[in-house]
Sequence to fold (865 residues):
Amino acid sequence: MKEKYFPKEIEAKWQKRWAEEKTFEVTEDPSRPKFYCLEMLAYTSGRAHIGHVSNFTIGDALSWYKRLRGFNVIHPFGWDSFGQPAETAAIKDGTDPEKFTRDAIAYMKWQFQRMGISYDWSREVATCDPEYYKWNQWFFIRMFERGMLYRKLSPVNWCPKEDISLSNEQASGGVCWRCSTPVIQKELMQWFARITDYADQLLDGLTTLEGKWPDRVITMQRNWIGKSLGAHVKFDIPECNESVTVFTTRIDTIFGANAIVLAPEHPLVSSIVEGKRYGAEVLAFAEKLRAEQRGGRAEELEKQGIFTGGHAVNPFNGERIPIWIANFVLIQYGTGAIMAVPSGDQRDFEFSRKYGLPFRQIKLTDDGREIPAEELDAADDGWTTTVNTGEWSGLSSEEANRRMTGYAEEKEIGKGAITYKLRDWGVSRQRYWGTPVPMIHCGECGIVPVPDAQLPVVLPKGVNLRVEGGSPLDHVPEYVNVTCPKCGGPARRDTDTMDTFVDSNWYYFRYCDPHNDERPFDPEKVAYWLPVDQYIGGIEHAVMHLIYTRYWTKVMRDMGLVKFDEPVSRLLTQGMICKETYQCPNPDHDWLFPEQVTAEKTCSLCGRPVNVGRVEKMSKSRKNAVDPIEMIEIHGADALRLFVLFAGPPDKDKEWSDTGFEGAARYLQRVWRLARKWVDRKPGQLETGVEMNVHSRKLRRRTHQIIKRVTENLEERLHLNTCISSLMELTNEIQAFDAEVDKQQAATPAEAAVAREAIEALIRMLTPFAPHIAEEMWEAYGHGSSLAQSQWPGFNEDLAREEEIEVAVQVNGKLRSRLFARAEATEDELREKALADDKVIAAAAGREPNKVIVVPRKLVNVVFK
RNA sequence: GCCGGCGUAGCCCAAUCUGGCAGAGGCGCUGGUCUUAGAAACCAGUUGAUGAGGGUUCGACUCCCUCCGCCGGCACCA
Fold:
């Protein structure tokens, strides 16, 4: 063992050895329990960032731990390598997305390998490989055959900057999820997946994930699915012989309806305004509202509407109410039409106030009063008691809701209905760098899948990406022009590519059988490894990725490929690594790198005092990013990993600190020095009966206590930061022990044995956090094989038990004294000792205590009135 | 507006789930040992109305209620 710790040397050595010995490559082994540890595949942006380190080290710590506990651990990795950014970058540089992506993979893989994560690289998958996306196409065809995929003309969200269609999720808030450009609408033929068929299953499945997935992810998915129970009610429009159906969750408030409000895009608008005096104005106004909504952020728009001139009849009371168009009614949700009840719905309230529509009170307040409609200052959407609702007056809102739904069904004017916010998933993209849709359009036969034997449909090379209009693939005749597989006539290939979320739906199934060229995977292999035992990734995937992959799993189950409902047993969303920012008041200097800021917190360029900004997510633009490779160069991967894990709980945001990082490196050096000092001392036997001195007994006790604590912290919750602090504690104990021994001439064999037990336990427990240094020390301690073949240290409860304990003595709940007792002291013993305490006797002043509370091993509380 | 997270020492954070002496670990700072000096290393030291108020309890950082502050997500979903 070298005198000094040289992380670079050690890390290179073990990374090489692990690769050569295929230490982390695994195969199915039914005789051992399996553990599937998965980190989200990396997008091939071209460069590793600190978020990767955080993500991987959490998973790696758990993988190592489970490996040492005897599990057969699969820990694979891969690349999310299709998608728009590569295409945009290629257009910019005039190169090819494939080259850009391959270069990115090569470089990032090198970066990731320097982190020394225990991946089974033999299972590596890149989604842009034809060997992979072939199976996207295979799934696409199977789903088409099952009616799970269909085409429809649909307005798509379109990012004018990237020239790409976006899913609803990607256009959330009316802006592109990547570049924040306001999204516009375009009408295109699109492929859709019927995820709504699985809405209830996706919702119900969430119940089984409670306690295993973060609450907020479950909540976000529930909100996303947005199941809502209510009713459809039909309002006749006698003047044009039509009817309009609204969706409402509060049919019990229908007597308070003062208008029907349609979305500007509602198909009935044109027939309602036909022949009306101001019809043209209404249509123009509707068009204006639609245009405004394109700007996105509907929530920021003021409520605006216009009376169409038409009227509908309330089927419950025969009342004639006006039909309006307004911007706050969404065409995508429900039926695109509502009944406005201003006393029961805040939006309707605001709308009615603005346009002077009449109010009617149709229910009591919570405390049973009836407020006159004109005195209302806000809508009340509570469930109370109905009034002024004809034969349903005086019922509870719930009861009225039920009975009135029943009445509507009876009279055939409506029926109970369930509505979801979730909409079918648009999987078409009109770009180049994605999985080609394996479909052929034939004038004679319609849509015909490419025969399985001809898969994959390979993305053509050398395509001009700078085309105006449509997809770049439209402009490649040799790709587009094909013969129909059915009739042999001339046909046209579908030029859409797939949303990259298709790629990430099932990549972790492929890891189980990554080189299979006959099937997407062998179901038996998947049955062995899946479900994923622990998935670790960013919160940004809470809805899209994690709902699509749950959906895909259920479809695969229905295809007979898998036997479970939920693919991910446990989910952890890691926190971000943040850092403070510096900004110079001079706008030319703006954000500064830390090295541009002087010790006095002034700008090194102009000398002005800088604004020290909040601690926030690292980003290039704010110049607060820390480059992992630079950090590895300074103190090594082990120190970087240790710091990131030590900075805080895995699921919480953490703050980067240069001095903290140095502290991690210093800690490893300290462990190294201690280990080296004891490595050559011959240990004696640690059998019972051997006499031991006080410091030896103490170190043994602390060793076993800390093994116990670290084990529990790893098993019960992934509080890796407290595991590391426990290891530091053990290190401090060993150091104190070492100092004791130094006072003597030489260590006794018994002392050497105690030290060895402690140090070897420390080494093994350090493995999940700093595997390279652990391996190196383990080898130095005479172990011939990798720690991967070793075992997690066990602990002995008897040895962990304290000999003597300190017990707090309280009087009326306030700390007044302390006493020492045997660890096994009974309640009576403790009570007696406490009552004999001077301070207690003084406080008693001759009185008898009213009560004495004894918490064994902790405290005694003597209570006087 | 709704939902969630956080608030403990100069700073990052433990202890909160399961009520029991507020402090494990790290950073910083101060002093010392060593050194020509510094660095490194080691040793010693260093701090508190647990955001506020109320309740339950013998006892509250922990449980309950009402607020405040910061962060994040969702948001006209009828």
